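User: Can you help me understand a structure? I only have the sequence.
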Amino acid sequence: MVATGNGDPVIRLTVTGGVARIALDRAAVRNALPVGAWHDLATAAAQVPEDARAVMLASDVPGIFCAGADLADLARLSDDVAARGTFREAMRAGIEAIAALPMPVVAAVEGGCHGAGVALALACDVIVATTDARFAIPPARLGIGYPAPDVARLVARVGRGQAARLLFTAAPVDAGEAQRIGLVDLLGEATEVVAQIAANDAAALRLLKHAITDPASPNHDRLFERSFASARFAKGVATYRKP
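Assistant: Let's start by predicting it. Here is the structure, written out as tokens:
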């Protein structure tokens, strides 16, 4: 399945063996996403099958994850006041659609990850980066801000001090430094992590993600207790039951 942007496909969705792969594909501008592509990202997320056990957010362009928002779109915002809200809402729709997926989402970061690309990775549950990955959040250099929900996710991941450093300096960090400060969880190939996740029970994965993202939910205890009725649990403990 493919969600298309204006003209050539920008966001691609494929599903294989219980794993949904959402890929960015706009090589000419290093996967910088225009307004329409953010909406297509939300559409792709909505098309992920309910029984998918994991989602991998990746790039089909070698050497780059995402250069952020399309600079052509950003340039128009200087004079087009009405377009500012349209741009903000489109970007928010795409990022929050990824964050709202009920199954685990792994960001596979290869090469550059800049600006809104970092916000997109932050919407995922696990960030896996190759050793050539580089991260930068440059809005301070451009004279603009960064959306509050994305700042909040950054602070939650790396702490207030490191978040301030990344935002205030706009300086890039390499994969090793990103892992050291907690922006990246693992260095290596995301496909291995996704395969490990997908080997587990789909319902259990959803329940565990629910507990991580909403630990105060009043339904969690009930859902936890109900999980003991699952067929996978029954099969797993069958050998321990007394005849």
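Now, to help you interpret it: The chain is about 45% helix and 15% strand. Residues 1-6 have pLDDT under 50 and may be disordered. Let me know which part you'd like to focus on.
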